Amino acid sequence: MNEILRTAHAILLKDLKTEFRSREFLGHTFMFALLVIVIFNFAFKINPLNTPELASGILWIAFLFAGTLGLGRSFLIEKENDCIQGLGLSPVDRTAIFIAKFLGNLFFLVLIQIMTIPVFIVLYNLNVMEHFTLQTAVFLLGDIGFMTLGTLIAAMSVNLKAREILLPVLLLPLLVPLLIFAASATAALLTGGEPESYMGRLKLLAAYDVIFFVVSALVFEYIMDEL
Amino acid sequence: MVAADYIAKRLCMCFPIISYNLSSYSRIVDNGAMQTTSIVCQKVGKKYGDFVALRGIDLGINEGDFLAIFGPNGAGKTTLLKILCGITRPTSGGATVGESDAHNPDVRKRIGVISHKSYLYDNLTAFENLVFYGEMYGVENRETRAAELLESVELDNRKNDLVRNFSRGMIQRLSIARALVADPAFIFLDEPFTGLDHHSAVMFQKLLSGLHRRKKTVLMITHDIPLGIAAATRAMILKGGRKVHDEPVNGMDADTFLKIYLEKVGA
Q1: For residue B21, what is the enclosing H or E element?
Q2: Could you give the ipTM of this predicted complex?
């Protein structure tokens, strides 16, 4: 296990270093999330009564769309110069590659959220982080599930010609349960709902994360064989 | 082998810097113990759907052999290499590398692969790339090893430059260093001369000859008959997934082999 974590750490550091040097992904993805929030602000008739209900959906859609954009990138950097083959030829455990890619994707999504949420608070005049600890837990659990499945599907689609289209087409249907649990938990916290209303969803999110993380880590080795 | 040695001697006379680099390179690859390993394929077949890429290939490569594999596109050369690297499983038959199944992850530690794709990260420096791959192969003293390898391929003065700023020849030299980071016993090459200018190709060939002299077992796929036949000790031709020629080179010149090649592939 230590060996897997050591290797994952090395791949993660490499990914972060190459991404911050190229500066291609972060700025574009942040701009995209920002645009989604702004467009929804114009598209809906937002008022103080419906804001908490709509806000959670808008926020999660912005995260899903922006996160999906970034997912494709995580394996594309490995396709340049066929580095994925270089990794595949090395004696590293495939699970380490999955963990590194998952953590890298999660890191960038959290970074996008940290940049987007303050803008959202100002634009919608709604403090989504009022229940800071609980809302952070909802975001993190949602992010983990999203990035677990996203990393797996991104790996599967990286060799496809129409990968830009196929990645969201394959991924988003699988994320519907996660979106329902996460958006409703966020909405429950924003409307000041009873603890039972969001705690149950938090548990469901946690179960979703555990199941898909274990399955994805196990399946990833076979996907790597085909890359 | 005779031809390869002849070219090596001539080049060392003409370009003393190559001689220097080979001698420094020799020190690097000589740090391993004596290796008595070989590669065996038994009735290896591979299908992709209905397409048959390999049809019952039997092959034995002794320690220290330098085998060049030629063949037209779609002959199954790269598929064979992928099976030996352990990244693709054969549909039938089996392959062993160093007496272990080719798909055994431990075998990968002993294989260095050089392709026309560099497997290098454009946004990392030459040094960072080598240290990263050193970590992937569990190499100790990665920084020292990376510095030694960069010196051996004459890139020590560019160690902190990003790979995206390198020329094709420099990338291929760095690719050699990457493949050697774990001091592998087996070197597999897939179209290594693709895109190289003449000077880089000659230098690359020199480095290959140096590897062979250090008793590394080398298997090279190439379309470049003159360069391939000059470096190899044994030549094999694949056609339609079948082995149609497999003989020692024994000083054969490229023109003679080209005639054999054209006869065997029916071009």
Answers
A1: helix B16-29
A2: 0.86
> CA-CA distance, B235 to B232, in Å (whole number)?
7
pLDDT, tens digit (0-9, with 9 covering 90-100), for A120-147: 999 888 888 888 999 999 999 999 999 9
Chain A residues whose CB is inside 8 A of the B137 CB are 90-91
Q: How far is A92 from chain B (nearest CA, A)?
A: 6
Phi (first) and psi of residue B246, to 5 degrees:
-160, 95
By the CB < 8 Å criterion, does A62 face chain B?
no
φ and ψ at residue B112, rounded to 5 degrees:
-115, 130
Residue A26, phi then psi, degrees to nearest 5: -60, -50
Q: Of all helices (H) and strands (E), which one includes residue B248?
A: strand B242-248
A17 interfacial to chain B (CB closer than 8 Å): yes
Give the whole-angstrom CA distance, residue A112 versus residue A119.
Answer: 11
Q: Does A83 touch chain B (CB under 8 A)?
A: yes
User: Hey, is the C-beta of A87 within 8 angstroms of any chain B C-beta?
Assistant: yes
Q: State pTM to two decimals.
A: 0.82
Paired with B245 in beta bridges are B237
Exposure string over B158-185, b if 16+ CB within 10 A, otherwise e: bbeebbeebeebbbbbbbbbbbbbbbbb
